[in-house]
Amino acid sequence: MTDRELAPTGDGELRASPLELFFDLVFVFVITQLTASLAHHLTPGGLARVLVMLAVIWWMYDAYIWVANAVPPRTHGRRGLMLLGMGCFLVIALSVPRAFDGGGEVFGWAYLLVIAVHTGMFATAGVRPGAVARMGALNLLGAGLVITGGYLRGGPELLLWTAAFGLQLVIPYLVDLPRFQLRSDHFVERHGLVVIVAFGESVIAIGVGIGETELTAAPTATAMLALAVCVGLWWAYFGADDEEKAVRAMARLDDARRNLAAIKVYNLGHYALLLAVILFATGAKTATAHPTSAIHLPEALALSGGTALFLCANTGIRRTLALGPTRLRLLTAALVLATTPLGTQLNPLTQLASTTALLALLFHTEARRQPAVDALAAEQPSAAEHGPRGLRHHDSDELGDRRPPVALAADEAG
């Protein structure tokens, strides 16, 4: 098979394969382990550990989405490598609970194998060999920091793993990223599936929190309200057909800007979304275990802060890709965060009920204003009509008035 046949094009439909969906099941376990770790150590130090573990894991997990976008797992060889990578991620997930207590070296060596498999697969993607070698070398350097930290443990481990996280942030600017032709449909779909997988952890946390508690009115109502908040987060991400809009927005960009937008929105932006789900799941576990008793501030903050962070990250994504109104979502995030005292002074049942009401009001208001948004957007020339430079605003996180007219009209209505 030639490089031309292997290299993806920006056009042409590519859907997520069953093997990729199977691969995502391991990520459910990763999120479960990180949630359990945070629940047992809900302190600033425990949160810092989860932050860096999620960062280094998500970086390479997302890298496998990139490589499947370049070389879909359609042959036995590619499928075998994907399954090998999946097994390594399973070992990483298993080592999460003790990653900072004597198990960091296992995490690190499994992480190294994940990188080796990924680099080998990417070498067949039709990307210039020098770029692949540079990317692989930088990822291996990050793995070296993780392995070394695993042997040192404690504070030095956290410091080195944080350095690995920092290295990840600059890697896209040190490799030949603009030459990679990303397929928008597959890329957007895969990240949407990962978000759904993460929501599954919230549902698991609800069940774990209740445990063997008798299903009286209070725990049942709390579980239903926690699920309602999950539905609200789902609605924030999927409810306004943002996936289809994102595919169109990404497809209109040239390769260089599309790839940089992919890093900002789907690597960094979705890192924040996943962290938000972990925080909410941690709070939901406590809420369902003690539905009518006041809970401690960290648990109440996790409950409200996770929801608020998800709305803020989702707002950033919508703003970057000009998907729709954003101001109401930021206001709702602030109001959700303000429900924290309800959990500490009253009970999580009341806190969840207030959060559910705020989310319902948000989406009801957006739905009522949508016809006005659509009308304003129809009167404005689309960004695509401005030519290949029409979406140049994606080069910056701060869009300001450089956003396309459709985005400005949406914010005026929302």
Q: Please, could you describe this protein's structure?
A:
The chain is mostly helical and 414 residues long. The chain folds into 2 domains: 8-179; 184-379 and 400-413, no CATH class. It has helices spanning 3-6, 18-40, 44-70, 76-95, 104-122, 129-152, 154-170, 184-210, 217-238, 242-251, 255-289, 297-321, 327-337, 340-345, 348-379, 405-413. Helix 6 runs antiparallel to helix 7 (154-170). The chain is globular, with a radius of gyration of 22 Å. The termini are far apart. The model is unreliable at 1-11 and 380-414 (pLDDT under 50).
Give the helix/strand layout.
Layout: H1 3-6, H2 18-40, H3 44-70, H4 76-95, H5 104-122, H6 129-152, H7 154-170, H8 184-210, H9 217-238, H10 242-251, H11 255-289, H12 297-321, H13 327-337, H14 340-345, H15 348-379, H16 405-413
Helix pairs in contact: 2-3, 2-4, 2-8, 2-11, 3-5, 3-7, 3-11, 4-5, 5-6, 6-7, 8-9, 8-10, 8-11, 9-11, 9-12, 9-15, 11-12, 12-13, 12-15, 13-15, 15-16
Largest beta sheet, briefly?
none
Low-pLDDT regions: 1-11, 380-414
> What count of domains describes the coordinates?
2
Please give the share of residues in helix.
Answer: over 70%
Class computed from helices, strands and strand pairing: mainly alpha
Could you tell me how far the N terminus lies from the C terminus, measured between alpha carbons in angstroms?
50 Å
Total E-strand runs: 0
Round the Cα radius of gyration to an integer and report it: 22 Å
Number of helical stretches of at least 4 residues? 16
Beta percentage is: under 5%
Give the overall silhouette: globular
H/E element sequence: HHHHHHHHHHHHHHHH
Transmembrane segments: 21-40, 46-68, 80-100, 106-125, 132-152, 158-175, 187-211, 217-240, 261-280, 300-317
Keywords: Membrane, Transmembrane, Transmembrane helix
InterPro entries: Low_temperature_requirement_A
Protein name: Low temperature requirement protein A
